[in-house]
Amino acid sequence: MCMKQFNFSIIKKLDNNLGRAGIIETPHGDIRTPSFVTVGTKATVKALTPEMLLDIGIQVVLANTYHLYLEPGDEIVKSFGGFTKFMNWNGPSMTDSGGFQVFSLGAAYGKELSKVVQVTDPSLLIPERSRDEGVEPLASIGNDGVSFKSHLDGSLHYITPEKSMEIQHNLGADIIFTFDECTSPAETYEYQKESLLRTHSWAKRSLNRHLELEAEKDDTVPKQALFGIVQGGRHEDLRKESAKQISEMGFDGFGIGGSFAKEDMSTAVKWVNEILPEDKPRHLLGIGEPYDLFVGVRNGVDLFDCVAPTRNARTGGLYTKKGKINMMNAKYRTDHTKIDEDCMCYTCKNFTKGYLAHLFRSKEMLAGTLASIHNLYFINKLVADMRQSILDNNFDEFENKFMLDFNSK
After folding, report:
1. Helix (H) or strand (E) segment spanning residue 358
2. pLDDT band at 98, cuts 50/70/90?
3. CA Rg, the chain, in Å?
4. Are residues 227 and 210 in the same domain?
5. Does a structural domain hold residue 360?
6. Could you tell me if 318 and 374 are in contact, meaning their C-beta atoms sit under 8 angstroms apart?
7. pTM, two decimal places
8. What are the tens digits of pLDDT across the range 37-65?
9. Which of 100, 218, 315, 335 has the fewest other C-beta atoms within 10 Å?
10. What is the distance between the alpha carbons of residues 14 and 384, in angstroms, rounded to a whole number?
């Protein structure tokens, strides 16, 4: 049986020559880009079934390499036919590299750092990789790989680029990523440069092992596409150097990784996408707030993934066309309106703010489900509407109107 191969085509471009609408073909279906990729960390999108995801309009699910390696184990997942069959998802799929978990357990452990920060406080700088006294990082990075302690039971593990490829092949996603080091935007230039050399070395090793594993497959096993990850922190010279080197290695597509300072994310993405090959897809890792999505699409990003829509939903944070609201606010207890008057998601068609406020205050499980349905629908539709606005030649007008309404509160 001949499997459908991975392919990317551009349908229409923005006038700025970077933003575009396209189609990614995978063995398990097409992805209309730009597209929001839903995060199913442990082979599940928390509180939702695959049928709910389809009803929302989700095209792609991304699972987490680190978490599935630890529990239930990638060999067990492989025995079920990969993580998509394990969770009964029949559409396109992705797995990340595990690099961000290394960041979380290492550089970010014990500090209030995330992927997008405003670096204005000198106390956030990590000039000697030091930690707050008494807080030991769970991961240690060397040139060959990363040793880390499981957050589940404290057991010691060691992951190399080759091991990451083997795990991701067992998990069986259509699109996988090279093993990389995700650095904090607060790191020194010297460390960012050192880390970049390591990430590029790991990219070559990841690619070599990936090609070996692909060669071992027969025609009945779908081929997997490997994306190389561009790093370089906040620094223009490092970002451009990384984009140049990664683009020359022969990957099927590219991830734009690392953490960003909020004020310069758009320039960092533009630096990279002006260098990366136009005919291959680009994925901005871990970004999903509305403003950042517009910035990414305008500057040539095709795919985004982020836990924010579902994570915010589980604590009562909901998106509306007029901005974010929190269901724990007392005023919503007697509110008979729906979350967003123009929204056509299952939650908005059937329930009021008052009902959701009751569910959250009562700590009912249904609260997280209904809120997650709405938030994923909102973000997924937003990116789908961006795509349509590119096709309709009115991206600027659409962005201006959306952001004006979204910031109106």
Report:
1. helix 353-361
2. confident
3. 21
4. yes
5. yes
6. yes
7. 0.91
8. 999 999 999 999 999 999 999 999 999 99
9. 218
10. 15
182 and 120 both lie in a single domain: yes
Strand ranges (E), 209-251: 225-230
Could you give the dihedral angle defined by the CA atoms of residues 192, 193, 194 and 200, in that order, rounded to the nearest 10 degrees? 100
Helices (H), 88-178: 99-105, 161-171
Domain count, the chain: 2
- E-strand ranges in 169-302 read 175-177, 225-230, 253-256, 260-261, 282-284
In order of 130, 400, 403, the CA distances from 408 in angstroms are: 42, 12, 8
The number of residues in the chain equals 409
β-partners of residue 324 are 319
Structural domain containing residue 373: 314-406
Catalytically active residues are 96, 305
Residue type for position 326:
N
* pLDDT one-digit tens code per residue, 352-406: 999 999 999 999 999 999 999 999 999 999 999 999 999 999 999 999 999 999 9
User: Which pair of tokens denotes residue 362?
Assistant: 């009562």
Write the CA distances from 101 to 66, 179, 406, integer angstroms.
7, 11, 32
Beta strands 260-261; 116-117: pairing state? parallel
- Predicted confidence (pLDDT) at residue 127 exceeds the cutoff of 80: no
Domain membership flag for residue 41? yes
- Is the separation of the CB atoms in 171 and 77 below 8 Å? yes
Contact 37, 94 (CB under 8 A): yes
